[in-house]
Amino acid sequence: MGNLLRISVAFCLLGSLTPIVRTAAQAPAAKRPMTFLDVQQMRTTASHTPSPDGKWMLYTVSTMDWKEAKRQSDIHIVSVTAGLSSSRQLTFTKEHNESSPRWARDGTSFVFLSNRDAPENAASRNQLYLMRRDGGEARRITDAREGVADFAFSKNGSWIGYKSGKTGDEQLYRLNVKDIDKPAEQLTKHSTGVDNWRWAPDDSRIYFTSPDVIDPDEKARRDRKFTVNVRNAETSLASLWTLELDPHKTKRLTQDDAYSVGNFTISDDGKWVAYQGGSAKRYERNITAATLYGDLYLFDASSGRIERLSRNSEVGESGLSFSPDSRWLAFSAPDDMEKFTMTNARVYLRAVNDHGQPFRQLGGTFDGDVSVGFWSKDGGTIYFNEGWKATNQVFALDVATGTVRQVTNEQGSLSLTRDDDSGVLLMSYAAGQRRPPCSWCRAWSRRPRAPRGSR
Hints:
- With 455 residues, this protein is mainly β.
- Among the domains are: 146 residues, Neuraminidase; 122 residues, 7 Propeller (Methylamine Dehydrogenase, Chain H).
- Helices cover 7% and strands 39% of the residues.
- The strands form 8 sheets. A 4-stranded antiparallel sheet has the order 1-32-31-30. It has a 4-stranded antiparallel sheet with strand order 2-3-4-5, with no helix packed on it. Strands 6-7-8-9 form a 4-stranded antiparallel sheet, with no helix packed on it.
- Strand 24 and strand 25 form a beta hairpin.
- The longest helix has 11 residues.
- The chain is globular, with a radius of gyration of 23 Å.
- 36% of the residues are buried.
């Protein structure tokens, strides 16, 4: 077992420290079984975001208003070491929402989305706000006419990139963190808009996907505020692009009309981009189960070479995942990769540089689904969550041997993830009537500690 899991399980399951977030109040003196309506009345937490040093965590708390049929969310902060008793609310907007908190790289402040200043005719329109970790008044840092759709800090923390614009014509902008009062700089004027986007690890470029064409009739009706969404509408294929920064220059990276580029991921060394290519046929891509008719591709950022990694029909594959050292490439798919089946999922792994070589199947003897949750630091283990005898547990997949080992053995529902920016482990744990859902976290440690009740 890796050091990662040994420390985290000891922390989370044995209760050696206090839970970070609890989603329900303490049980009343007169105990009774929990009902469906009790669950609906609970406040819920989301956007758990540890600070870069792993000492603090931001999160949102949403409260349901049944009379108004809506939820309202605010941002809270908690000390990772002190636990639940240190939790405090940072924003107080009863009629508006704060969401998606993201830490500045120095950990002294954070940025979030809010509709607190939205006009009445666009009540859900978000802007970006900056706030110090120790509280105080939030400061608005964008004035985007169409609001901010999403945002992300560059890897070195010098820039905040965000997407804004009318539907179908959203563009990328950036703010200089050191000169936050300076107006945002528009990065793209792409004729078909920007869909998914990501910073490259060295911040020298941004990768994004964009439709190949825009339907003029569709654009015209939306411009006229006829915004009814057509179910299973015909949509354009999408391609992968790169935006080189300083100076700005966009370049199309995929030129194949046989598929549409979907979700993509970038290796930590910045040398590779892996993506899913959906079927060019409308009904296979938009109406039927899209992933059944898609395949996986690998783009070499230095040469521009594209390698097709899978070639099948009616076989659903997950997105691709790189190991931390960018040596390995993995995805999950059914045990039978030749045709549609209801077989358990397995992990398929290959060295990134082994062009044209087959993937090795891992976890073939495990009685359950094997997936790619997150990697150990050395890339030797893949951790994942899976249902097990009416519970949910954490499992470890050994990359070298392909064997699966059960890591936790708790009488409850347990799910473990890792925050990519800080390396902090986040665990959600509930045990029915005995314990309502709680969130726990733990910084990565190299000193192992064998937990009780775990393997």
